[in-house]
């Protein structure tokens, strides 16, 4: 049983499935959505390797996600919250040095992308007179890929940027400046 | 599932947490199995972010967006990244001179900068695009001292104005210019938060109309479902987040009404404030 007979498309389906799981758990105000998403995918992989017959992988995965969430709620240390309960700390960046450091991190991380990745992100978002969907359809047609594939590519680039930015901010831009 | 306006509304409500649990679960089951719908959900999320950045969300949706998108650490980091690069990049795009006899769209000018041979500038423009893609948070919220106009903490470059300006207003029978509250709204300001003191009585909901004084025109903005807060034994405070795009320089009046449990509408009072540019 596979997500798709084509290896590359199977990879795209996997990434899309992971995004769906993240969306599912984030909608429940769960702070560690990636942990539960990975747990769900691990269980799916285990079922497959154990030889269990799964006719509809996507629907099966949805059921697994619900099961994983219900199991989490039953744990003694579970602390389900609503969005209203989560602290909404205002974003304050009045410190000019702090702001400058983050600006450096942003530019540094953009430079870490390939030229093609920067170009794709630029085109993905710049479309003054079009809706996002129409503009992206044009890009997908020009690149001769599906909308799904385009979305997956952009998600990968965003992940790279955010990971780089988090690392830069948490470890200090000054270390990167010296390197 | 075919794309339709109904889909967009449904998906937007899902993203803002405005569906019942049954509706939410039903939608989730569908988008798990329908890749096209899920891609549409992601596109709707992007559009929601754009609307938030442009100040096009209603005050209620604006609050919901912040609660859903900023309270999770990974999304917060994305917004922090975007917040850093949006104001200077947008200002740079707006200030770019146009070639003689040619109208250059904002988006095209940004793409041109991005493709320029000046890597630093190109990267700065790319950073703007990433900011839009990831989502921008440039809101700082802070309660103001009563009667004093409060400029929220700034996270933009100097001169752009704080992203949020908060005013606490009390009802007045007429405007006393010497004591009116003033909001300084710059190009970087996105929201003017009006905190309207109601008194001790609280209503089921609140309605408000905003008009510019002196021009005799109709309300420039109305809201029929405002929230209120009450801290301890203090007065009820009705909160109205007005997009800065609706507030040109001038004198304004807010007419506030309370809706009782029997749906009767009761006039609470008029509130006055000024909007001035930095």
Write the layout of secondary structure elements.
The complex is a heterodimer of chains A (179) and B (278).
Chain A: H1 7-26, H2 33-49, H3 57-74, H4 96-112, H5 115-125, H6 132-143, H7 147-171, H8 173-178
Helix pairs in contact in A: 1-2, 1-3, 2-3, 4-7
Chain B: H1 5-15, H2 21-33, H3 35-53, H4 59-70, H5 73-95, H6 106-114, H7 119-134, E1 150-151, E2 164-169, E3 181-184, E4 191-199, E5 205-212, E6 221-230, E7 236-243, E8 250-259, E9 265-276
Parallel strand pairs in B: 2-4, 3-9
Antiparallel strand pairs in B: 1-2, 4-7, 5-6, 5-8, 6-7, 8-9
Helix pairs in contact in B: 1-3, 2-3, 5-7, 6-7
Summarize, please.
Chain A contains eight helices and no strands. With 179 residues, chain A is mainly alpha-helical. In chain B, 37% of the residues lie in helices and 25% in strands.
Overview of the molecule:
The complex is a heterodimer of chains A (179) and B (278). With 179 residues, chain A is mainly alpha-helical. Chain A is built from eight helices and no strands. In chain A, helix 2 packs across helix 3 and helix 4 crosses helix 7. Chain A is globular, with a radius of gyration of 20 Å. With 278 residues, chain B is α+β, with helices and mostly antiparallel strands. Chain B has seven helices and nine strands; from the N terminus they run αααααααβββββββββ. A nine-stranded mixed beta sheet of chain B has the order 1-2-4-7-6-5-8-9-3. In chain B, strand 8 and strand 9 form a beta hairpin. Chains A and B meet through helix 1, helix 3, helix 4, helix 5 and helix 6 of A and helix 2, helix 3, helix 4, helix 5 and helix 6 of B.
Distance between the termini of chain B: 50 Å
Q: What order do the helices and strands of chain A follow?
A: HHHHHHHH
**Mean pLDDT rating of chain A:** 81
Low-confidence stretches of chain A: none
DSSP summary, beta strand count of chain B: 9
Could you name the ranges of chain B where pLDDT drops below 50 across 5 or more consecutive residues? 85-121, 135-158, 173-177
Helicity level of chain A: over 70%
Relative helix content of chain B: 25-40%
Count of alpha and pi helical runs of chain A: 8
């Amino acid at each position: 049983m596979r997500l798709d007979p084509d290896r590359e498309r199977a990879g795209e389906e996997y990434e899309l499935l992971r995004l769906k799981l993240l969306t599912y758990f984030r909608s429940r105000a769960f702070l560690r959505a990636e942990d539960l998403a990975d747990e769900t995918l691990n269980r799916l992989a285990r079922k497959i390797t154990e030889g269990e017959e799964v006719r509809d992988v996507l629907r099966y995965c949805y059921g697994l996600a619900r099961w994983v969430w219900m199991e989490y709620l039953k744990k003694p240390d579970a602390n389900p919250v609503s969005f209203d309960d989560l602290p909404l700390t205002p974003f304050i960046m009045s410190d000019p040095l702090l702001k400058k450091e983050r600006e450096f991190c942003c530019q540094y991380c953009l430079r870490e992308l390939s030229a093609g990745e920067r170009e794709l992100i630029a085109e993905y978002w710049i479309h003054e007179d079009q809706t996002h969907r129409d503009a992206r359809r044009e890009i997908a047609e020009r690149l001769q890929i599906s909308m799904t594939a385009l979305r997956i590519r952009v998600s990968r680039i965003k992940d790279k940027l955010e990971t780089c930015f988090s690392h830069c901010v948490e470890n200090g831009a000054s270390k990167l400046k010296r390197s | 599932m075919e794309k339709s306006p109904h889909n967009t509304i449904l998906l937007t409500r899902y993203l803002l947490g405005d569906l019942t649990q049954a509706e939410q679960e039903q939608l989730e089951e569908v988008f798990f199995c329908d890749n096209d719908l899920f891609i549409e959900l992601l596109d709707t999320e992007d559009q929601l972010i754009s609307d938030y950045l442009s100040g096009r969300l209603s005050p209620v949706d604006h609050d919901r967006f912040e609660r859903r998108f900023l309270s999770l650490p990974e999304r917060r980091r994305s917004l922090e990244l975007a917040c850093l690069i949006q104001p200077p990049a947008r200002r740079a795009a707006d200030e770019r001179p146009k070639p003689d006899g040619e109208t250059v769209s904002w988006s095209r000018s940004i793409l041109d900068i991005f493709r320029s041979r000046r890597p630093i500038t190109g990267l700065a423009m790319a950073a703007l695009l990433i900011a839009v893609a990831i989502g921008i948070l440039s809101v700082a919220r802070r309660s103001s001292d009563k009667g004093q106009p409060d400029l929220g903490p700034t996270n933009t470059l100097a001169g752009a104005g704080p992203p949020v300006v908060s005013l606490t207003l009390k009802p007045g029978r007429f405007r006393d210019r010497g004591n009116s509250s003033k909001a300084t709204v710059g190009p970087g300001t996105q929201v003017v938060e009006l905190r309207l003191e109601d008194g001790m009585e609280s209503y089921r909901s609140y309605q408000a109309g905003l008009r510019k004084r002196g021009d005799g025109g109709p309300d420039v903005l109305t809201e029929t479902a405002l929230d209120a807060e009450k801290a301890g034994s203090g007065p009820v405070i009705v909160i109205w987040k007005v997009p800065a795009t609706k507030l040109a320089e001038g004198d304004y009046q807010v007419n506030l009404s309370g809706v009782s449990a029997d749906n009767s509408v009761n006039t609470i009072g008029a509130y006055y404030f000024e909007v001035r540019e930095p």
